[in-house]
Structure formats: structure tokens, C-alpha cells
Design brief:
- This protein has about 325 residues and is of the alpha+beta class.
- The protein folds into two domains: about 170 residues, Thiolase/Chalcone synthase (Peroxisomal Thiolase, Chain A, domain 1); about 150 residues, Thiolase/Chalcone synthase (Peroxisomal Thiolase, Chain A, domain 1, 3-Layer(aba) Sandwich).
- β12 and β13 form a beta hairpin.
- The protein has eight helices and 13 strands.
């Protein structure tokens, strides 16, 4: 299968490192050098997750030049924090885009959701022989849930809003998906969550201030990730490459979700890659599961990848999910 068209929507508003420093009490140099945030988008009044997904999907469809009546499925990776609670977004996207009322799914693996959606897409193309094209689209605004006064969520100060989409086709040309890999770390299942607003702790007037992302056990989470995240990232990249029939030596470019600069450099070093073989999102922040699509779009525009390039993508989502993909840019 091939990614035939990509679309990205970013709000125009911006917040810079100085304001994040003021809100958090951190020195600005820490925000810039340790957290890797020079600036990031902020949402405007109309920038809701499903709406941003819709705008990005319009761009992906336009680039792919595929008639809308031939798009047989919609895989929505719009985040759980969205326009309305307890609401499915795949039907909304299909309705607003004028797509057929065929297959639709809402998928959620947090910041690894795009990797999971590619796996679902691969399965659909394998089992639905009449399926020619499908749309993966998502919107993200979890930065609304970050309290800059809570140092335990410092690793989420980079969360930023946006929309991104990919039109995926059975046939090329485009970015051909050659390998996928996925892993979970269930020991971190409860570490990051909004503690109120569900059935265990219903939202009440006195708990409104707790409706934000919290870390249950910061010390355990840090220790666990320090011990396991780098080897797991490396393992899923190697596994996806092996399925594709390649090794790390063949990789031309690796797209990595936004993380602190030291972790980004450490992963590239562990994989034997140079910084020139990647791209760092210090002016975009972390758009959750949309980072891989954003990186592909930026890498094409900046000439970091070109026809023939072997491209890796790697992401992780709290829960904890890890995923990787290997693609080659193939022209017709």
C-alpha cells in the first residue's frame, strides 16, 4: 500500500519559549535546550480536533487526486480530547468530506495511533479486495490539558495543536509501506491520564481543576522509560526494517516524534544515524500521533527525502505503545 497524498493543518497562533518559561517558572534556556521547544502552534477559536483533521484531509485528497467516491474507508485518529465528548469522528469526516458511507473506524493508541492505523489499513487492503483507497485523518489538542505549573508533566509541555491526514491507496505511486512493527509496555498503563471525568471519578464542580493530564507515579515512570524506551525504539525500527528486507545501514531518513533533544540524539546515535538523517520539530512541538505525517510532509518540502529514499518513522504513545514504519518513495 502507498501513501498517495499528505495533508497538514497548523494553527497560525504561536507561543514561544519565553512565554512557556514564564508560565512554568523554568529558565528559558531549559525550555529551548532541554525540552527542545523554540516555539509551537496554539489553537484559535475554530481549531477543534475534528475540524483540523477535516482541513488536513482536504489537502491530502487534493494532493492524491483521487475521486472522493472511490475512497472506501475512513480511519479516524482524532484524539480522545476533541470537539465533543463521547463522540465518533470517522462518520463526521466522511460526511463533511462527501465520502461514501462505507467502512469507518475511530482508532486510539495515543501518540502511536498513526502506526496502528497503518496496520489496520494493511489488514483492510488484504481482506477487502474491492477497497482501492482509504483515508487516515486526525486532529490533536491535548495541550489544552497541560498545566505548566506541574513539573511532573514537563515532558508534555511540547504538546501542540494541529491536523494531519494521509490518503492511502492499494497501488502507487507514492510512499510505499514496506514494514511495520508494534509493541506495548503494560507496566505503564495507568501512568498518564486525566484522573477525573470518567466513571471512576465523575466530573463534579469541586474537581474541575483536576481535569488535566497527570502522572500517577513520576519516579517510577521516569525510571521505567530511562531503562526501556531507547532499546524499545531501536527494536521496533529494526523489526520494521527486517520485515521490509532492509537493515539500519540502508535507512536514508528517520522521522522521530518530538522528544527532548538529548533523547532524539541518543536514538539516532544508537541507530548509527546522523542528525542530517532526521528532522527535529523544535518549531512545531509535539502533535501527538500526527508527528509522523508532519515529518513526512516537512522532509519532502525541505528535500531531506526524495524519490528512492528509504524512510523510517518511529513513535510512542502513553499507555504505553511503540510503533515503527518503513517506507520507500516510489515514483510512477
Amino acid at each position: 500500500m502507498y501513501l498517495r497524498g499528505l495533508g497538514v493543518y497548523l494553527p497560525r497562533g504561536r507561543i514561544h519559549s519565553r512565554e512557556i518559561a514564564e508560565r512554568s517558572g523554568l529558565p528559558e534556556w531549559v525550555v529551548r535546550e532541554k525540552l527542545g521547544i523554540l516555539e509551537k502552534p496554539v489553537p484559535g477559536p475554530e481549531d477543534h480536533p475534528a475540524q483540523m483533521a477535516l482541513w488536513a484531509a482536504e489537502k491530502a485528497l487534493e494532493e492524491a487526486r483521487v475521486p472522493r467516491d472511490r475512497v472506501g474507508a475512513v480511519l479516524s485518529i482524532v484524539e480522545e480530547h476533541k470537539d465533543y465528548p463521547v463522540w465518533a469522528t470517522a462518520p463526521y469526516l466522511a460526511h463533511r468530506l462527501g465520502l461514501p458511507g462505507g467502512l469507518g473506524m475511530d482508532l486510539n493508541q495515543k501518540c502511536a495511533s498513526f502506526m496502528g492505523a497503518l496496520e489496520v489499513a494493511r489488514g483492510l487492503f488484504a481482506t477487502r479486495k474491492d477497497l482501492e483507497h482509504l483515508l487516515i485523518a486526525g486532529g490533536y489538542r491535548n495541550g489544552d490539558l497541560v498545566d505548566y505549573r506541574d513539573e511532573a508533566v514537563r515532558f508534555m509541555y511540547d504538546l501542540a495543536p494541529g491536523g494531519a491526514a494521509a490518503l492511502v491507496s492499494r497501488e502507487g505511486p507514492g510512499l510505499r509501506v514496506l514494514g511495520l512493527a508494534h509493541r506495548m509496555d503494560p507496566s505503564l498503563a495507568l501512568m498518564v491520564k486525566v484522573p477525573v471525568g470518567g466513571t471512576r471519578a465523575p466530573l463534579r464542580p469541586e474537581t474541575l481543576g483536576e481535569y488535566r493530564l497527570r502522572v500517577e507515579d513520576p519516579a517510577y515512570m521516569k525510571a521505567r522509560l530511562d531503562a526501556t524506551s531507547l532499546p524499545t525504539f531501536k527494536a521496533v525500527v529494526e523489526e520494521a526494517l527486517a520485515e521490509a528486507g532492509y537493515t539500519l545501514r540502508d535507512l536514508d531518513f528517520l522521522g522521530v516524534l518530538h522528544m527532548k533533544p538529548s533523547a532524539h540524539r541518543g536514538l539516532l546515535e544508537a541507530l548509527g544515524l546522523s542528525e542530517a538523517q532526521s528532522l527535529y520539530l523544535d518549531r512545531h512541538g509535539h502533535l501527538g500521533q500526527l508527528d509522523p505525517i508532519l515529518i513526512l510532509d516537512l522532509a519532502r518540502k525541505e528535500g531531506r527525502v526524495r524519490p528512492g529514499s528509504l524512510i523510517g518513522l518511529v513513535a510512542a504513545g502513553v499507555g504505553y505503545f511503540y510503533g515503527a514504519a518503513v517506507l520507500r518513495w516510489e515514483e510512477g
